[in-house]
Specification:
By secondary structure, the protein is mainly beta. Helix content is 10%, strand content 42%.
Amino acid sequence: MKYVRFLSQSGPQWGVVEGEQVKTLTCAPYEGVEYDGGSVKLADCSLLAPCTPTKIVCVGKNYAEHAREMGAEPPGFPVLFMKGLNALNSPGGEIEPPEFVQRLDYEGELAVVIRRRASKIRAEDYAQYVLGYTCLNDVTARDVQKSDGQWARGKNMDGFAPVGPVVTDEVDPASLDIRTLLNGEVVQQSNTRLLITSVPEIIAFITASMTLEPGDVIATGTPAGVGPMHPGDTVEVEIQGIGTLRSRIV
């Protein structure tokens, strides 16, 4: 299934994409799908981030070539950091960094959306806890990250985590083409088979120390090729079988 979340006249609503239509749901699909009998055109939907997380857990330097382009050797275990809910942004949304940010970078990533509460999960059981997969742009104020000496402020500014456009359970996270385009030019291109730590191993590692809740998001890391964005730019994260997450810099 492909799940979306969109803004209806009564507020945010969930739906399942079937062709050009969205069949609407009574509630979030974390514990199962329950249709309400309604249907709307996908083209008429104002899409929201297709998740309602309590937290966004990110894996840093999870592609070897990206680690090296950042001046480090690939780590021997997952390096985790968090993004706050203030960073969550919709597909098609705008990214507006504070005026003091001098270097704003894109980082296209595969993201995992959690289906049910997960604690101390074995890697082989990971699929039972996954609602599906989506695109995420780990927007980063690179100059702030470097000057601070840690990642909290540079990663967590308002709107710095666009997610979407759909969450789908119809793909295999072990081998998905992923690329990022800046104003139509490919700037990142890789495949998730090159992840240092795989999705099952990431979920096992995270849940060994923290409980994940329904709707939580895991960002699995970005490939090599990160670079700057400027006002007026359009950035797109494309992942095979999922779609295109598009954002505009203002």
